[in-house]
Amino acid sequence: MAPHKAEPKFVVQDQESSLFLMPHEGDVAFTPWLHEAGRFDGFAEAVDTAALHCHEGYFVTQVFQCEDKWKNKH
Fold first, then answer.
1. pTM score, two decimals?
2. N or C: which end of the chain has fewer CB within 10 A?
3. How far is CA 47 from the centre of its chain?
4. What are phi and psi for residue 53, nearest 5 degrees?
């Protein structure tokens, strides 16, 4: 079995509400679900966005987004 190709991304979680930032109609919204959270390409971009939308603090976490072969087949 070949290893998956994983690309590092970053997600932002609001400290007060525990909700994740997500893109919504060209703006930013919040979601309780990690799979709906927006993926940022860089740490600095995630921090800049969090500073604008998470007023009581935030967590930036690195995640690995795998290329999913099954998504392309269904």
1. 0.80
2. N
3. 12
4. -120, -15
User: Which tens digit of pLDDT belongs to each residue from 13-45?
Assistant: 999 999 999 999 989 999 999 999 999 999 999
DSSP code string of 12-26:
EEETTT-PEEEEETT
44 token code pair = 């600095």
Domains contained in the chain, number: 1
- Domain range enclosing 35: 6-61
The answer to whether position 71 is within a domain reads: no
Report the sign of the C-alpha dihedral through residues 24, 30, 31, 36, in that order.
Answer: positive
Position 38 in a domain: yes
Q: Are 21 and 50 in contact (CB under 8 A)?
A: yes
In a domain, 70, yes or no: no
Residue 47 lies in a domain: yes
